[in-house]
Amino acid sequence: MRILTGIQSTGTPHLGNLMGAILPAISMGRSPGNDAFLFIADLHSFTTVRNPEVLRENTYAVAAAWLALGLDVERVTFYRQSDVPEVAELAWYLGCLTPFPMLANAHSFKDKSANVNQVNAGLFYYPVLMAADILLYDGQVVPVGKDQKQHLEITRDIAGAFNRAYGEDTLVVPEARIDEQLMTIPGTDGRKMSKSYGNTINIFLPEQELKKQVMGIVTDSKALEEPKDPATDNVFQLFRLVAPAAAVAEMEAKYRAGGYGYGHAKKELLGTLLERFARQRATFQALMADKGELDRQLAVGARKARTVAQATLARVRSRAGYPVSHP
Ligand code: AMP
Ligand code: TRP
Question: Residue 186's beta-bridge partner residues?
């Protein structure tokens, strides 16, 4: 089964992205019978990112994080969206079969255009490019968060319209797989960890900066000697998610006994993060210092993706009335 999904290229992923999305996706890519396509949606970023250096670095940071966390480019087709420019051509064909009101009424467009002062047409066209991302590669199952549900419905509608016009076997109509967020990782203030709340923990930061984030976790003001409730404490909630079971039980007992402060717990959490992700941190730094290596790893996926893309595009071009090859 061809499973396909896109990752926003918004920079280095945080612990919430890691535990909630990246690690589960990597293990899904490992299960036999799954032919996974995973790409960094750097063309979508162009709707908002105007700085070329930031655009490039964000993409590299996302790639380095996924690779450091164990993504195997021989098993998963992992590529940068812009490395297969065929997607832009397909988006054009699809756009011409997309009813204007469908895009104008999309929730994400309405939300985004209400919040920015310059509404560009790329923002409006975003779902068409996303449909092309999926349809270009014959994606069958598309795991996405709830917020992307409507985009998948639009993709299915566009694919349906295309197939009615040009033959039912032109495009594969994909199914969404909505992950109901099995797990929400709390941030340093107890709310959902999110870049927009400024409450993230980023395991790829240099030790001193990571330490600052961990030491900044919000706690109540109980004195060192007082017993503490692990169920309501942010430090413990994060520790629980990353530490081995025995260490978690031990910390829980210390909380209840008293004489153990939040400062101690934070140090243990920091130590655990550094230990658990030691290899990943080192790999991330090494990859970020060697963009040539990142490009080589991404090129493996781009070649595989491009072969599939060209076959789909040949089908679409010939049915729509365009030459399949160019002079
Ligand atoms: P975002 O950048 O917020 O769109 O998130 C990218 C991916 O990470 C999505 O699949 C989210 O479901 C997941 N994710 C983001 N924040 C968290 C969190 N605090 N806990 C669990 N998963 C998260
Ligand atoms: N729009 C998606 C998001 O914001 C990212 C994305 C782009 C995507 N193209 C895709 C997801 C294709 C799934 C399939 O998260």
Answer: 192
- pTM (2 decimals)? 0.94
* Residues linked to residue 77 through DSSP beta bridges, in sequence order: 37
Q: Please check the confidence at residue 326 and state whether its pLDDT lies above 80.
A: yes
pLDDT at 181: 61
Ligand 1 neighbours by CB, cut-off 6 Å: 8, 10, 16-17, 20-21, 145, 181, 183-185, 192-194
Pocket test for ligand 1, best of 8, 17, 69, 241 (most atoms within 8 A of CB): 17
81 CA from centroid of ligand 1 (Å): 20
Domains and CATH numbers, the chain: 2-184+290-320 (3.40.50.620), 204-276 (1.10.240.10)
User: DSSP label at 192?
Assistant: B
Answer yes or no: are the C-beta atoms of 11 and 40 closer than 8 Å.
no
Q: If you measure from the C-alpha of residue 11 to the centroid of ligand 1, how many angstroms do you get, rounded to a whole number?
A: 13
Helix (H), strand (E), coil (C) string for 202-229: CCCCCHHHHHHHHHCCCCCCCCCCCCCC
CA distance 156 to 134: 10
- Terminal CA-CA length for the chain: 36
CA distances from 128 to 116, 123, 139 (A): 20, 10, 15
| Residue 74 CA, distance from chain mean position | 20
Gap between the Cα atoms of 103 and 110, Å rounded: 9
- 65-98 pLDDT tens trace: 999 999 999 999 999 999 999 999 999 999 999 9
CA of 80 to the centre of ligand 1 (A): 20
Largest Cα–Cα separation, the chain: 80
3-state helix, strand, coil in the chain (%, to 5): 60, 10, 30
